[in-house]
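Sorry to interrupt, but I need a hand with the structure work. Go ahead and set the record down below:
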Amino acid sequence: MTAATSDLPRTLTGERLALVDSSVGRVSYYVAGPEGGRDRTTGPPRPLLLIHSVNAAASAHEVRPLYDAFRGDRRTYAIDLPGYGHSDRSDRPYLPRLMIDAIHALLERIRAETGVASVDVLAASLSSEFLARAAREAPATIRSVALVSPTGFSRKTRTRGSPEDNRGVAAVYRFLTLPIIGRALYRGLTSRLSVRFFLRKTFGRKDIDEELFRMSVRMTRHPDARYAPFHFLSGYLFSANIPAVYDELEQPVWLSHGVRGDFTDFSRASNYRDRPNWRITEYPTGALPYFEVTDEFVRDYRAFLADTDKTGDRDGHEDGDRHRHA
């Protein structure tokens, strides 16, 4: 842990741990809840992994309401993606592959610790693309997929090219990383006024979660905090064709989103309404419904997980059918 990283506050309760992987560096994560995995009839429910969104001020603090709600009855993990929170923030390319590999690495840690073969995973916004690709690459490790206000469902979403390619614009990145201009831009982007402005766009209203605001501001004060956001702003963290990945998901999928704010175009979600393994829920909220209607959201997510339980595990104990639908 660097001195700069150690100066950042803890954002969640429980233990804050880290794994070190040769391909992704140090990945920090929080964990709380009963130990052990689920053996079908006894013991705590299956472990849950929560993945925050990607922006200039992101970290595991963005999933706090869900982490607090679920840690009481299941082993609950929340990752700091590379470039965010207490994870490695060094100057390197921040591409989808890096984020996906970090998810794979933590899933392996969770599976080794709990003894389960597959984990329930929820991701917010752009991180839904990373989760979807991880679920397609290693379907046996992810039992269910929950996407909160995911990118890739608007009418303008690209559907050409390979999902493995990204939408990065080199000229934008070069401009953002000019020594003087880049630092000035980042300071402006992460000022208290700017952070509040963007959170109001996310919530679609003047009132926002003030603890989320305070922690978001703190997360931007790391000296290397600009590297991942600059790749995000340049388009490098967006898949060139994420709908092709969503189309191939075999796990039970829950897509939830709000109808207020700047992130409300989910036109392409209608393509999935009739798929037997997909469930879609709208809330009268902004892009992070679990901050505004926490009890309702948690109840709906628990119902989705319970329905997934009823259809059988993906552990291979009862069936190994990779094409099972919820």
Observations:
- The two ends are 42 Å apart (CA to CA).
- The chain has a mean pLDDT of 91.
- The beta strands are 15-21, 25-32, 48-51, 76-79, 119-124, 142-148, 253-258, 278-283.
- Residues 273 and 309 are 21 Å apart (CA to CA).
